[in-house]
Structures are given as structure tokens and as C-alpha cells.
Amino acid sequence: MTTHFDCIIIGTGPAGISAALYTLRAGLTTALFDTGESGLCKAERIDNYYGFPGGISGAALLAAGREQAAALGAHLFAEEVVRIEGIDGIRVHTVDRLCTASALLLATGARRQSAPVPGLRELEGKGVSACAICDGFFHRGKPVAVLGSGAFAAAEARELVPLASEVTVLTNGETPTADFGGLPLLTAPLARVEGEERLTGVLLEDGTRRALSGLFLAVGKASAVSLALPAGILTGPDGITVDRQMRTNLPGVFAAGDCTGGLLQIAKAAGEGAVAGTEMVTWVRKKA
Ligand SMILES: Cc1cc2nc3c(=O)[nH]c(=O)nc-3n(C[C@H](O)[C@H](O)[C@H](O)COP(=O)(O)OP(=O)(O)OC[C@H]3O[C@@H](n4cnc5c(N)ncnc54)[C@H](O)[C@@H]3O)c2cc1C
């Protein structure tokens, strides 16, 4: 079943919650998704944010923000978003749910996980890719692998199955936590990614070698950039590209906080969230 909201916000950190305070108080139905991982979870004591003379822990600030949004009627979903679509209507996919919205905000923080495997970085863009929908086409009829072990890796693998001759899942020592639909799973840690000018394959620590045309990074949860790229949202070296109204290149799709780069601080995330929230209200009202 598909549920429609006026606004969907991915992230319940300072950027996502600040935006929600504006959309909710404007009377717009607002769904917020989060994975429970914010940059703030690890911040023991915050001393440089307005209004807390004795400091506050990151966890306490996060909990207070979520409580504030919940009290205003936010629909809170503790679910990882694995795919978004923003052309021809906004759709947000988790493993179990599809939602549509009139406006979407990416407030997913800056985290973009990779793996410290020798050779991996050097071959990015030369067979190593961060986007199955963008680059899967180049490996039609050839063997590819997905590096990851969770729901995001499973979503990337599903995109590749109709294209590649074989899709192998490399969990790099992690226990798989998603349904990979019977695809071959290699769980040994990676020893190195091989290739000179281009990727040729991978060697695992147990001695297994796999020849590969493409290797798709999907470690951990879907990051802002890995959600943005397949949806056609422009990104730069710092994160998602936005204008001063926090608009991306797609109509009705906004981004705020650490995922837009620049100063990675709560004050900047909250400020961008507030701008995005007010712009989302204007956008939704114009569409109504
Ligand atoms: C150890 C540490 C200490 C810090 N100390 C300070 C400090 O003292 N002062 C300061 O100003 N800043 C500090 N920061 C920086 C601060 O935490 C960030 O700038 C701020 O949290 C950014 O807010 P955000 O809303 O953009 O992203 P985040 O707070 O990172 O929130 C991201 C949200 O997106 C959600 N999310 C991500 N991906 C998905 C997905 N695929 N599906 C669903 N949900 C998703 C997450 O669950 C989370 O809710 C610190 C950071 C760290 C790591």
C-alpha cells in the first residue's frame, strides 16, 4: 500500500527536525524516516550550541528534537530509506514501505561509508561505482559484485540482477542482515581490489578470487549521495548541491544539514533545516 504525505523528511537530526517544526506547524502531514544513527549520537557534550550554558549531550538533544516533532503530530518511521525517485513524482522506498510526497527533504547527514580495502579507492570510477542505477548499464552481460551486507546492498543488487551475467554479494566479513534473494554471498574479508587501469576483480582473505567487470559500493546505510545519484539529484565533492533556498535541481526536492557540505555543525544544520522547512511549505501550498 502506498501512503501519501505532504512532506517526507529523511533524517531526524538537527536539519530534519528543524524543517519538520515548520512543515508540521503549517499543518502539513509530515513523515520522518531515520536509522537511529546521527552524527550526534557520538557527541558526549555539546558546548557550542545556542541555549545550553551547561552543555548537553548529543543523545539528549536528538531525543528532545524527536519528542518535539512527535508532539506536533509527525509520523516517525524508524526505517532505512533505500531508494528515492524525484522525477515524475516523489517516491520514497524503504524495505517494506512505499510513500509518495509533494515535497521531499534529504537531511541524512554526511556519513558515506566505504571500506579500507587496498586498491578500492584507486579504482573508483574505473569499475568501482557508488551507484547501480547510474553505472549498471556499463556492465551488461558481465559479472559484477556488490560490497555490503544490509538492506541498501540488497537494493543495489536487485538493480543489477537484470543487467549483469552474475551478481555476487561481498560482505567483507560482515554477517548479512538483509534478504539477498539467493544471490551468491561471499562473507570472507576482502584482501584487495585488483586492477591497474581498470578493475579486474577481487581477492578475498580466504584465497578466493573473483573476476569482475564492476564493483558497487553499498556499505552500511544508504547515504545522501547514494540516494541522490540514482534519482538524478546533482552532487558535488562536498555532498548534495543546493541553492540558497536549499532546493536541489529536482522540483520539490530539498537538502539540508551535513549532507550539503560546508560547516558540519548543529547550528548550520538547524539553520538550513529551517530554510528548507519554510520553502517546503511554500512549495506544497503552491501545488495545492
Ligand atoms: C563525535 C561528534 C561530535 C560532534 N560534536 C559537535 C559539537 O560539539 N557541536 C556541533 O555543532 N556539532 C558537533 N558534531 C557535528 C553534528 O553532529 C552534525 O553537524 C549534525 O548532527 C548534523 O545534523 P544533520 O541533521 O545534518 O545530520 P545528522 O545529525 O547526522 O542526522 C542524520 C539523520 O539521517 C538519518 N539517515 C541517514 N541515512 C538514512 C537513510 N538511508 N534512511 C533513513 N534515515 C537516514 C539518520 O538516522 C539521522 O536521523 C559532532 C559530530 C560528531 C560525530
Largest sheet: 7 strands, mixed
| Oligomeric state of the chains present here | single chain
Question: What is the H/E string?
Answer: EHEHEEEEEHEHEEEEEEHEEEH
CATH class of the largest domain: Alpha Beta
* Mean of residue pLDDT values: 94
Rg (C-alpha, Å): 20 Å
Count of DSSP-assigned helices = 6
Q: What structural class do the secondary elements suggest?
A: alpha/beta
Number of domains: 2
What does this structure look like?
The chain has helices at residues 14-25, 58-71, 132-135, 151-160, 224-231, 266-287; strands at 2-10, 30-33, 75-77, 81-85, 90-94, 98-106, 128-129, 143-147, 166-170, 185-186, 190-194, 201-204, 209-211, 214-217, 235-236, 239-240, 253-255. It has 288 residues and is of the alpha/beta class. The chain has two domains: 2-112 and 231-287, FAD/NAD(P)-binding domain (3-Layer(bba) Sandwich); 121-217, FAD/NAD(P)-binding domain (3-Layer(bba) Sandwich), CATH 3.50.50. Strands 1, 2, 3, 4, 5, 6 and 17 form a seven-stranded mixed beta sheet that branches. It has a five-stranded parallel beta sheet with strand order 7-14-8-9-10, covered by helices on one side. α1 runs parallel beside α6 (266-287). The longest helix has 22 residues, at 266-287. The mean pLDDT is 94.
